[in-house]
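Students often ask what a holo structure prediction actually looks like on paper. The answer is less mysterious than it sounds. You provide the chain, you provide the ligand, and the output is a string of discrete structure tokens encoding the 3D arrangement of the protein together with glutamine.
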Amino acid sequence: MHDRLHTDEAFGPSIVSTGHLPPNPRVDELVEEAWQRYRGVGDGTVADYIPALAKASADWFGICIAGVDGVVHAIGDAERAFSIQSISKPFVFALVCQALGGGRARQSIGVNATGLPFNSVMAIELNADRTMNPMVNAGAIATTSLAPGANAEERWRFIRDGLSHFAGRELTMDQEVYESEAATNQRNQGIARLLLAYDRMYSDPEEATDIYTRQCALNVTARDLAVMGATLADGGVNPVTKERVVDEDRCRRVLAVMATAGLYEQSGDWLYEVGLPGKSGVAGGLVTTAPGKGGLGVFSPPLDAAGNSVRGQLVTRFLSERLGLNLFASQPA
Ligand SMILES: NC(=O)CC[C@H](N)C(=O)O
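The corresponding structure tokens follow.
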């Protein structure tokens, strides 16, 4: 976790919101304040283990909040496309829970934290559940292997269409990012094979890894992430399109696993500072959900050592504080 998140910082009073997010002009002001406050932060490194991601500019920076009332507040590069990467994980888990039932999804994957990096092989070896959690690669590839469909094409369509419903628009894949990761993802292929050996892989491992790599290469914007996060906040109804994507009880399970492992081995620090379920991706996206209130999407490519966006974390902590969103704060009824 970025050092600055370990130090106390004065944010000013919070707008304690008990129902929906507070009136729009205040949220716009705070989004702008967050952007100004952190745009000069130069720490972190753009991911390059997937070669195509290294082309991103360290300066790209966008923030977007979507309320459960469907009102959207955005600033900076909020409409710039980037690959969703690991932020696909909670949404694919939601879709698989919806299709199979939360009980079966939990039994097949597990919901405990690994405390280890997202692509850890040790986590598989050390834990009897093997897959551990849908927020790390092992659990995510196993989740993808549970997607319904008669063949790979149908399973891929199930995932792409489902994620598109969360975003409220048709998402398309970044072919260059997909090919770049497909050529370099031997570690994920190894994880999938290892899970097969432990009976925790539910389709052909090569196929599951390929579909997982495709889902990670879907292009989104900070605005899409905010709407996707707001759909989880709104009990599964997309607040912009008004379409129900998944049932309410699936959302609360998804938010629980995000809280447990959404920022990998830094999830404890994150919950301590921000008090909300979040999920990061190596392209620099970060989604956060304030249940019953809304979703926040931040995009800024430089990452800390765990692979989480540095500015994304700083912005989210600031807005969680100022908007009074921390789930663990006692709020007036
Ligand atoms: N943390 C991430 O965003 C990782 C996603 C990436 N596609 C991988 O599997 O390595």
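The pocket of glutamine is lined by residues 85-86, 118-119, 137, 181, 188, 216, 281-282, 307 (CB under 6 Å).
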